[in-house]
Structure to design on (536 residues):
């Protein structure tokens, strides 16, 4: 099987033009098949503010009402996605920018109402959740084999004409797992840190490799805690579903991927 | 050769949700290979106004400054394009929404400075002009043959990372001519009228067929005049470059295309 990288970048890169330009160059130079998934960043928040749209926050999660959905569709699927594609094309990477509705590639389910502690029913609005069957791997395969490099924004659809806002980390994971039957697939999360750190204040303390047994130990020792636990739980879950590996590290270290020394590598 | 329809819709349909829904259903039911190109409509103008962005009008043409380019990229390539794609998918049409940067499919040249009558040099900003080599027909062919129905917004790029705002009528024409070596291609313009009218006040006076000789006569008689002349000049120019036919009519008459009784047909 050929190899495939599924690489996710977040707002910290998108919001920084110099970092983004450098990342797009590195991504373009990465050899082999690849897919990019990008998050949002601060542009949508600023645009909402400029337009006087204030969406509700419930238990730390932002509600995507109809007006907020328009904003994220404009910013993620339009402004950010097309500028990333134009940047990649200028680096001779044959990018094709997509949302989940395109080619019916990512079909999500609108999040059902949720009953919270005080008995209230919460409607998170136009938020789309994914399951193991949400991604049409064959459609992506056709695009990749035709020489295109898909670049996904985190806008999906329900198949009935409704666009939905979906978590970009989840999209990356579900795409990677779905592609793992067709390619030896590595999922790469670019985030603020150089990797999983033994000492959170020391960027030099990257733990180079972790397998499930070591993960258990690191949790028991308290080295891995709080926010990293759901992240790594998801990563090992994806590996158990057929993914080759998950790499977590800093975007500017992307050239190190080819030598397998990028950030932290999670393997089965 | 297989047949291909290249269909362009304008703002009058995009701004009317009921008309748009009905058009997307008719488009989906149209048999055979097809490509959709959409213009903008009033949403971008309203968004600019809401954001306090006022772009200059020079000799009736709007200057696309950096802020205006952001707005049209968000609205055309994001909001409108993805909602059209989701609508087509809900009608079981396997649409894939694209801007010209995607797959490097439409490469434009930034319009050069223009010296106007009073000697001033005018910069139209981030406006992209096309020529006969702007469209990568092979890239579109690959997508169409893979089962996708391309849906283009009127945002192009220069190949060096710069997005550009381009006239949607021109995009439709250049795409259609470029595809005419691969398919028997019909270009279809949907506009406000039922076709080229013998009497502009009578929607029943559609001239069914026009060839270049008849066009000359109709111009001499003064039946075709003012705004229709550049439109039809362009259409006959496209036909002379290999296009099978150009059809001009009302969007809601689209089902008549298959019986070749839609609006006005221009043929060589």
């Amino acid at each position: 099987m050929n190899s495939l990288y599924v690489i996710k970048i977040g707002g910290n890169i998108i919001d920084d033009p110099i970092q983004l330009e450098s990342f797009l160059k590195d991504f373009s130079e990465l050899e082999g098949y690849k897919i990019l998934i990008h998050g949002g960043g601060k542009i949508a928040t600023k645009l909402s503010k400029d337009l006087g749209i204030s969406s509700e926050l419930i238990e730390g999660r932002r509600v995507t009402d109809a007006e907020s959905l328009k904003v994220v569709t404009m910013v993620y699927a339009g402004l950010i996605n097309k500028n990333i594609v134009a940047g990649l094309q200028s680096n001779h990477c044959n990018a094709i920018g997509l949302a989940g509705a395109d080619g019916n590639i990512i079909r999500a389910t609108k999040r059902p109402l949720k009953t919270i502690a005080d008995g209230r029913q919460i409607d998170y609005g136009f938020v789309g959740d994914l399951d193991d069957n949400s991604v049409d791997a064959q459609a992506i395969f056709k695009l990749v084999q035709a020489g295109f490099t898909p670049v996904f924004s985190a806008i999906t659809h329900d198949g009935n004409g409704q666009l939905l806002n979906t978590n970009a980390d989840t999209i990356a994971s579900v795409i990677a797992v779905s592609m793992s039957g067709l390619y030896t697939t590595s999922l790469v999360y670019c985030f603020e840190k150089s990797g999983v750190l033994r000492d959170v204040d020391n960027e030099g303390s990257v733990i180079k490799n972790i397998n499930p047994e070591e993960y258990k130990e690191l949790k028991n020792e308290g080295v891995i805690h709080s926010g990293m636990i759901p992240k790594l739980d998801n990563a090992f879950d994806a590996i158990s579903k057929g993914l080759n590996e998950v790499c977590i590290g800093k975007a500017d270290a992307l050239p190190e991927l080819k030598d397998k020394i990028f950030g932290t590598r999670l393997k089965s």
In short: Chain A touches chain B at residues 50-51, 70, 73-79, 81-83, 85-87, 89-90, 94-99, 101-104, 142-143, 146-148, 155, 157, 159-163 (CB under 8 Å).
